[in-house]
Amino acid sequence: MPTSLVLLGGTGDLAQKKLIPALMDLMLKGVLPDRFHVIGFSRDDLDDKGYQAFVRAQIGRKGHGHEHQAIDSFVERFSYVQGDFNDKVAFERIKRSLVAYDETIGMCTSKLFYLAVPPNFYDTIFEQIAHTKLDQPCVVGEGWTRVLVEKPFGSDLDHAHYLEDKLSVLFREEQIYRIDHYLAKDALQNIIAFRFSNGLFENNWNKDYVEAVYLKVFEKFDVSTRGAFFDGVGALRDVGQNHMLQMLALVTMQTPEKLTADALRSTRAKLLRSLHVPTTDDLGTNIVKGQYEGYRDTKNVDPKSNTETYFALKTYLDTPEWDGVPFYLEHGKAMQESKTELTVRFRSSKDCVCGESEPHDHPNFIRFTISPEQKITVRFWVRKPGLKYELEPNDLVFDRSTTLSEGVLVTDAYEEVLYDGICGDQTLFVSSEEQAAAWKYVTSILNLWEDNEPQMYEKGSRGPESPLADEMHHGMKLLT
Ligand code: BG6
Description:
The protein has helices spanning 13-28, 48-61, 68-75, 88-105, 122-131, 157-170, 186-197, 199-202, 227-231, 234-252, 261-273, 413-423, 432-449, 467-476, and strands at residues 3-8, 36-42, 78-82, 110-115, 145-149, 176-178, 210-218, 287-292, 310-315, 327-332, 339-346, 365-371, 375-383, 391-399, 455-457. The protein has 480 residues and is an alpha/beta fold. The chain folds into two domains: 3-150, Rossmann fold (3-Layer(aba) Sandwich), CATH 3.40.50; 183-479, Dihydrodipicolinate Reductase, domain 2. A nine-stranded mixed sheet has the order 14-13-12-11-7-10-9-8-15, with helices on both faces. Helix 1 (13-28) packs across helix 12, helix 6 packs antiparallel against helix 13 and helix 10 (234-252) packs across helix 13. The chain is globular, with a radius of gyration of 24 Å. Bound molecules: 6-O-phosphono-beta-D-glucopyranose.
């Protein structure tokens, strides 16, 4: 199906670092439609040639050592429209550019609009799409029109509802692709494969056997040049509302009836709806808000900003399977290391023939390491060699990098996002129900800590000190 992709935010960070390289990889894999055209749109003063040079530079930056010919045929697919999101005329120019391409190839292309922009522009963009009728296909009944929207979708539950209402006037649910690139990560898709294909683990995957679950997304880097975006958003909306809650959903949801988009999305939504809504009593004990020292000096950040760059949460799920099990979520920028992992801690066996290594504290763990490497680790106990009967921990490790055949690479999450958007598979995209459930939980926290001063932490540290952080470190101490 010939396709036109309109990249709103065509010169932004996401386009540079992720989308352009992912499109190149899809082209090299031969999975892009033969007729595939990209219109970059941004405020930058460029023309088609200038944008093509920009695209070429991004390919070079990623270190793609491709043949000139491949790069040439890739950049030729790009054209450019300059403008502001508030400018109606600029959207008319996008329309003319779409029509011009269709006329050149003598076909009506399907249209994909990718909103790689901060959420405060969504409203205006939806209005412009409606005004210029960009949502209408060129020939009724021919091709499709889809919109891909980045997270965070809105700023709280009310705002998300407001945007949903606007979007639903223009597009039907099956045309709306709410992106959470974590869902598209191989490592997260592997959680589903691991859980639901292995009775050995899945049969013990509930409150009777699981003591606690720990999720952490630590980033060594700080906000850097993203101050303008980040200060209005904060860590909880940026990573918590989406990536972390989706990880939580995958590790705790019930078995989906089928592997279809509808079944998976509604199973994830059901789990997200069961998140226990916190109250003021949770503030400080089960909810910690932090900010790294020096954040307020970042370019485009309010010098009095209370925006969090760190959060720690202890939460529960109101479901029969997980009642009473604590779930710990911790995320921060400018931390001592970059690491994303999800650890399931099992209860110690009731009685233990543990020998002299008393007291009995011998839990099993299953850890999904999402990055920097992709691993699944199962921690178990064995007899320590020697004359005495003692136990020591040991690990069974699945390491994705060593299981790949030569020349095979793990598909990048953004390749998957773009590919599925083109093919029309919504499995790895967030439904409106999931979106609303995640916002309901996150909005309750935002309301609780609104205007609260964050706790400061040193850059390169483990985050602010708190009893909650101690509880988490203690719970995971055997698996470090
Ligand atoms: C993005 C956030 O969605 O996810 C970033 O905006 C964050 O702030 C990033 O750093 C993390 O994604 P990944 O794939 O690098 O772990």
